[in-house]
Amino acid sequence: MKEIRKTARELMTGFCRVCPVCNGKACAGEVPGMGGIGTGASFRANFEALARHTFNMRLVHDITEPDTTGELLGIKLSIPVLAAPIGGVSFNMGGKRTENEYITAIIEGCRKGGIIGCTGDGVPSFIHEAAFEAIAAAKGHGIAFIKPWEDAELYEKLEKARAAGASIVGMDIDAAGLITLRKMGRPVSPRPLEKLREIIVRSGAKFIVKGIMTPQDARLAFEAGAHAIVVSNHGGRVLDHTPGTADVLPEICSELKGKIPIIADGAIRTGADVLKMIALGADAVMIGRPFSIAAMGGLAEGVQSYIESLRTELMQAMVMTATRSLKALPAGLLNGN
User: Fold this and answer.
1) Cα–Cα distance for residue pair 212/8, rounded to 1 Å
2) Which CATH architecture has domain 76-317?
3) Closest CA to 265 of 249, 287, 243, 280
4) Are the CB atoms for 63 and 210 separated by under 8 Å?
5) Cα(78)–Cα(70) distance, integer angstroms
6) Distance between CA 253 and CA 231 in Å, rounded?
7) Contact 18, 12 (CB under 8 A)
8) Beta bridge mates, 72
9) Is it the case that residue 183 has pLDDT exceeding 80?
10) pLDDT in tens, 6-48
């Protein structure tokens, strides 16, 4: 991973510093780019909220090979992780890799690593075109996320995603505030309950709603027929001064846990972070920037290497906390919980 990160740093100069600690401080306001919007407070809040949770270390047990596997919407996962939907290599990451190279690395690296990658959407059109090509090449092993466009474009892209073989699609409603799309004259908008329900029905696929930050929106997504939700503030890139996702996740889980799968993102960097989010109630997690760095620095092999490092770290954290399986967490895994 050191070599992968070194290469990524060289290729992403001016767009991402590949900091030793990816906490949003050095890149505040760098959107487009890999930073957080405005002061970067929402990006930093994600990092700080997760960091406040600490483990209770327990070593009097016989666990040496914990079960790290998970499942999401019928897909078995070697670890409960998805690569987040990120696109726009040219204006967010420097353009030293093509969009096709990048998204193919994400989708194929995740497939070989035993998890699943998500694809992004945006402007120009080659972003979603590359995404659908990568999913088709992987025989449907990918989740296509489409932004809340106006009807004609939205439904056309949903049809293309299904034609590419995607059995799961998603909408990042949190993209409604993206500066990059506004600058390109292509703003996207929030969606009311009835419209969201119509979109989910017409998609003809299992549908994930990403961008949930309150119990109220969680309930509405469930009422609309969502098959899963993602607790996310879009990596701190759409609204300054939101809470961290780890702070809002428990209350959202109290509303929907056991009804539909709950995915969480937000400054998850290591296998230990994965375990924290699972302990806070998530069924799986979504990771963004570290996968982008892995793909830029090492293509599909870089993505596989990052997945393997996550698995190793997750196993270590599970052994050190007497966690035999992610399906049955021990009481008091986190300090104060």
Assistant:
1) 31
2) Alpha-Beta Barrel (3.20)
3) 287
4) no
5) 6
6) 10
7) yes
8) 75
9) no
10) 999 999 999 999 999 999 999 999 999 999 999 999 999 999 9
